[in-house]
Amino acid sequence: MILKIIIDDRTHDINVPDALPADARDYFDQIDRDMDSGWRMGRDWVEAPDRIQRAQIVADRLLTAIETDNPKLGTLMAGYLLDRLPGVEAVEPDIQGEIQNTRFEMVRPTEAMAASPAMSKPAGAGLSKLEAMEQAGRDVTQVFKVGRGYRFSVFDHDTGTWMDAPLAPTEQEAGRLRQEVFRARYEALQAGG
């Protein structure tokens, strides 16, 4: 498996052995346990990092591994990202130290869904209420803090990438906007859209 990392408009390919995610499962679980009690992301402390935030934290460690010429750690961090963020194709870590600005490029949704059980049925399948709610929960992240504002991300099935919502001044406003997007996604999935 190959993970591309984009640093200063240069792309580096990290070759992750196919067996690594299974072999390093205990190590990846330990990384998650370490993040369970919270993590500093740039200037902000995040009490309970969500899946995207955890991937951003690990992408920052991957950047450090590349900068310090530590290929073993780089391969492990790339393996974590490929295992925990199904469908990730490339990562562009923020080199200014703002971890929450790290971006991910995802493969086409049908490819990601075929490769991982974590991504369920594609849009257009006319999901049941429960399936639609679960899929909408995977497509719309929780609200997270970015600098002095708040936002959430939405998986765009047309492009296969995560799109950031506009920055909201308060957590409540970002939560309200997230709920609207979540509801629209849920209804579209039920309708087969």
UniProtKB/TrEMBL annotation:
<protein>
    <recommendedName>
        <fullName>Phage protein</fullName>
    </recommendedName>
</protein>
